[in-house]
Design goal:
The protein is α/β, with parallel strands linked by helices. The protein has helices at 21-32, 47-58, 91-100, 123-131, 166-174, 193-205, 238-250, 270-277, 311-318, 342-351, 383-394, 415-421, and strands at residues 2-5, 10-16, 37-41, 62-65, 69-73, 84-85, 107-109, 135-139, 142-148, 156-160, 182-187, 211-212, 218-221, 231-233, 252-258, 282-285, 288-291, 297-298, 301-303, 321-322, 324-328, 354-358, 361-365, 371-373, 376-378, 396-398, 400-403, 426-429. The strands form eight sheets. It has a four-stranded mixed beta sheet with strand order 25-27-1-28. Strands 2-15-17-16 form a four-stranded mixed beta sheet. It has a four-stranded mixed beta sheet with strand order 4-5-3-14, with helices on one face. β6 (84-85), α3 and β7 form a beta-alpha-beta unit. α3 (91-100) packs parallel to α5 and α7 runs parallel beside α11. The longest helix is centred in the middle third of the chain and has 13 residues, at 193-205. The model has no long low-confidence stretch (mean pLDDT 97).
Length: 430
């Protein structure tokens, strides 16, 4: 389905933040890897988290869920033998489970999104799994991928961090279960280090011991460990909230989002600091973020690697800022559901934004007077692109029609409902 976003001068109201997708997928996985019953309060419901739910059940976990919590009985270190797993379009779920299915005899990950996840590379993780003694069949590093494991062995492992930190996370989930101790060395530059902090936080909560250097470039993992059954509470999601906060910043607004912890380890928490630097009136206390936007923004420079999943929303806000903004160290955006630099900026230009790109930079020449809009744009099946383009549409002179906007459900199914509740003029069309 497509969505029409019409100019909306004013947003007002209060919503609760979505539960974190990143923490939900990690908690679901560590609960499945435990023997016994774990409880997860307020888990996210989205296509990505549902992909993890589906796959851990296929691998032998049981899951009982109500409106408040999910109760999971894990399979421990012995996943059930299955021949196929379908992760949908969820890249992190695929990579985490490529590590875990090293414990299985033979599993094929099928390719159901050839124009999105099917195009994303996984060579660095495939190379690392080979060092564990796991045989991997693949299509030039892409789906479909068959893991032939069963007897992985720990030891000295090197993995590149230059494309994605998800490869390293995959190894951190599986190596504690191996009989041998492991030493993991990251080669190249490690992207999205903040997200590795989230992985280590969840592993520690699950009773796993990992010794990491301060720069996250070297890890010592004792073998023979077991995941413990625990109770977890999922915090509010900053990546999804970033787009709503950006929408409030570019309009006349009085918007409050609840359940966004001030001390969260989510890198996308930086959206708060970025909007403050752009001189958006904003307060953050007791888990509530209140934006009293006046639509007046100042340009800034920002290292986007620390907040990968909020960068597109930041860029959308910068489209309307006074001056030129620069978002640097963002090359890993090119390896997401689409090329989030080239593809996204092409659509922004259609709407009337003045943007340019370099290999690892997005440069935005702000247009405080607004952009023309009045065009049909392609979100490239990417939930983050859909959300960010919606922000631009709210401040366009004429409506934007965003194609295939239903793919927002990958991470934030209620996104357009929440915007409507705040007064945004958005409408689904067939």
């Amino acid at each position: 389905m497509d969505v029409i976003v019409r100019p909306t001068p004013e947003l007002k109201g209060e919503i609760g933040a979505l539960s974190s997708k990143n923490y939900t997928t990690r908690y679901l996985l560590v609960a499945a890897l435990a023997e016994g019953e774990s409880t997860i309060y307020y888990p996210a419901h989205s296509e990505d988290s549902d992909a993890m739910r589906r796959c851990i059940q296929d691998l032998g976990a049981t899951l009982v869920e109500d409106d408040e919590k999910a109760v999971i009985t894990g399979f421990g270190r012995s996943p059930k033998d299955v021949t196929e797993l379908n992760v949908g379009n969820a890249g992190a779920v695929l990579r985490f489970l490529m590590g875990i299915t090293a414990l299985s005899k033979e599993v094929t990950f099928v390719n159901t999104y050839p124009d999105s996840l099917g195009k994303r590379p996984h060579d660095d993780l495939i190379d690392a799994l080979g060092q564990l003694g796991v045989e991997v069949d693949h299509n030039n590093g892409r789906l479909p991928i068959t893991i032939r494991g069963g007897q992985p062995k720990g030891g000295n492992i090197s993995v590149s961090g230059s494309v994605s930190s998800q490869y390293l996370s995959a190894l951190l989930f599986v190596t504690p279960l191996l009989a041998e101790d492991s030493e993991i060395t990251v080669t190249g530059d490690l992207k999205s280090k903040v997200v590795i902090g989230q992985t280590l936080e969840v592993l520690e909560q699950a009773g796993i011991v990992i010794h990491a250097t301060d720069d996250y470039m070297h890890f010592r993992v004792p073998g023979g460990q077991s995941y413990q059954a625990k109770t977890y509470t999922v915090q509010g999601d900053y990546p999804g909230s970033a787009a709503v906060l950006a929408a409030a910043a570019v309009t006349q607004s009085d918007v409050t989002i609840r359940n966004l912890s001030e001390d969260s380890k989510q890198g996308e928490r930086a959206i708060i600091d970025v909007l403050k630097m752009m001189q958006t009136p904003l307060t953050h206390k007791n888990g509530d973020v209140r934006v009293q936007g006046n639509g007046k923004l100042q340009a800034l420079e920002f290292d986007g690697d620390t907040a990968t999943d909020a960068v597109l929303a930041m860029v959308a806000a910068a489209v309307f800022a006074e001056g030129t903004s620069r978002f640097y160290n963002v090359e890993n955006l090119r390896y997401k559901e689409c090329d989030r630099i080239t593809d996204y900026l092409n659509e922004l230009r259609k709407a009337g934004a003045n943007v340019e790109e370099k290999l690892a930079e997005i440069i935005v020449h702000g247009r405080p007077e607004g952009v023309e809009g009045g065009v049909e744009i392609n979100a490239h099946y990417d939930h983050r692109v859909i959300m960010a383009l919606t922000v631009v549409g709210l401040r366009s002179e004429k409506p934007l029609l965003i194609k295939d906007a239903h793919h927002v459900a990958k991470s934030y199914p209620q996104y357009f409902d929440h915007l409507k509740a705040l007064g945004a003029d958005v409408e689904w069309v067939e």
